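[SOLVED] Need 3D model of a two-part complex

Original post:
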Amino acid sequence: MRFRLKVNGEAREADVPLGTTLLGVLRDDLGLTAARYGCGHGACGACYVLMDGKAIAACMTRVEEAPGKNITTVEGLAKDGHLHPVQHAFIEEDAMQCGYCISGMLISSAALLSETPHPSDAQIRKALAPHLCRCGVYLRAVRAVKRAAQ
Amino acid sequence: MNPGARRWGERPPERVEQRIVIEADGTVVARSGKVEYGQGIRTGFAKIVAEELAVPFERVRVELGETDRVPWDMGTFGSMSTSVDGKSLRAAATYARNLLVERASAHFGKAASELSVRNGCVFAADGRAVSYQELTAQAPLTGLVTEGSASPAPAGSVEDKPLRLEASDIVTGKARYAADVRLPGMLRGHVLQPPFQGAKLVRVNDETAGQVPGVTKVVKDGDFVGIVAERDEQALTAVRLLDAEWAPGEAAKMQPIDLMLRKDEGVEAAFATAAIRLDARYHVPHIAHASIGPNASVADVGDDGADLYVATQRPFALRDMVAGMFQLPPDQVRIHPQVMGGMYGRGNAGDSAIEAARLSRAVGRPVLVQWTREEEFRLSPCRPTLDAELRAGLDENGVLIGWRYDVRTNFHTYDASATLPPGVLEMTSGRNAVPPYRLGSAEVQLHVELAALRTGAYRSLAAAPNVFAIESFLDELAFASRQDPIAFRLRMIEDPRLRHVLDTVRDRSGWNSRPRDRGRGFGAACAIYHGTYIAEVAEVRVSADGLVRLERAWAAVDPGRLVHPDGARNQIESGIQQAASWTLLEELKHRDGEVTTTTWREYPIATVHDAPSEIDVVFTGRLDAPSTGVGEPGSVAAAGAIANAVFEATGIRVRRLPLTPANVMAAR
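Solution:
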């Protein structure tokens, strides 16, 4: 089935079976691989994308829910060649090791800051809580979001 | 040359051109068989080479693990990349610098002692300069790297700021993990997995599975059954529709292997005369690597050999495995390490790479296989269990005079056999079983046996479980003899570097003036891990129903000469964070060898809510001491420190991990 999507500000089309996950469409049909598979149950946060500004698990979202919505992936966070403040801040704090979970963390951080430009520590932790990081860079990630908010 | 014939850690002499190449635009290529999986070794190597060759850091391009280009390497594990390969790279870079200065000496007609290097050029005293690329345009650098050419430590301190070569690609989504590789004509695959280790396939019916839309081929080869399809979800749907019957295989049998790691005279006599004698048993369960990215590989097997785009800790071993399987010469198998998700030992097994290679060969097109989360929990090798029996005797002055450590565990290597080269079991399953203390008369015995689950390498191997049992038991001894836990340890330590990290962490954590509230406690532990000295203090809070929260942690670490301070700090912090997760939350459960915890709900790991408010890391290494590793040491001492803090907070000694409310309350 043919679906018309708006991803990172561009009109895109995908011809996929009904019920295909948004994650599958992004990664396998649109070539956007920053959102990653981690569990397929929405329990690890590796696949998060923005849908109309809200951070959601793309592995739990069917493609038929996407038309008419603005989808943003990490590939679309930078604007006019400038990194988003959270992207800068994660580099500045070296808030990463292997990086597999970082796309998801960036998405949730961007969603948090657009709603709450000056979040408390508790609000930052709440926003990052869906994102499992096995390397364990949580404290650096919290610092990075705080830095981005400044 | 047969790489398998080499002994652990043995390295042949190297030629400079295997390691360092100056390109026409001045780029310095540095090559290593190690791989990068988040530990920052690419950045560390670039810093080493930039330092020795006096070139800007950005001008160094590090090539890692590409088997057709880099020197042979056993694998990336044991926190040895900096200490071993970093040393080789440093020697090669120094050798290259000396060659460049020699050539410049001829070029200028000046003595080498009158020349200096900076910014990728050799300078004469009169200000004339010649670039490295000019010096190598006619003849590339060549020669056998001689020993002992490593440079003296630089004056002053090493620059300490966050820096990661991959950072920009990671935050923009450009980083390509194996599961992100897209080759023309690539298909997707999934394999029928046995329900438990050693199960034998009796029969399989693929009629329904083969009819799933998108399925290209059902590949059958003995017990190996796989589906190749246009889309991942199609292959997965089809593999789940395979109607298979399994029987228990011939259960692998092996007598436990008993090894005596230390046996002094007079152990029994020491116990007989002891003023205080203590016995205890400790248990550590299986845990999962739980990497966030499940194992994934792309294989492209054709007439000219095999290309594998993978995450692996052992590129050359994987190359030889695939070459053996297809009966190809090793140089026709090319391993291309991609950006890798965290490994923690997981990447020593072939798994999806072998599956992808077999499927690709069957269909003649590239195939991507990524394991599901369930497969990852169910089938990937896990950390062995530990069962330790300890006995110790103290004299009337509270000095340790007798020690016995009898420990039972499984294979921490991937070759679970009695035919491992001599010394390997002691180094792996026996790692850190002999503590760095004056023990009196001591006996340390190791028993290695097969587990019902598939076991393998896990960050620090047996060190973290051994150090948990030993450091917990030392606290029991300190308590029984009314001594401060850190002072008690210091009485038994001769090594000044270990004394120094313990002293330092005591001061940093405010140990001597720590609050003594009910439900709140501090605990300490220390270790020497592959030449790195580490001492940690943990502060915990324990609720009335036994819920443990890590509030803060401190670490003092001596890894010798630091290469990249903030990178090292990141490693120690995260080692503590990951080990806190093992210690407080994790147990891979199984029934008769069938894993029952196969989702994040059943196998929770630490989230940001579980992270402490602070992890304080201080380095005490000297610039003139050789560099040692930092990837694993942070994780080694954490469980002991946390369990000891729980005891101080509650008076409850929990001798079984994890320190869940149920296990804490059961130990009352």
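Edit: Residues 85-149 of chain A form a domain with the DNA polymerase; domain 1 fold (CATH 1.10.150.120).
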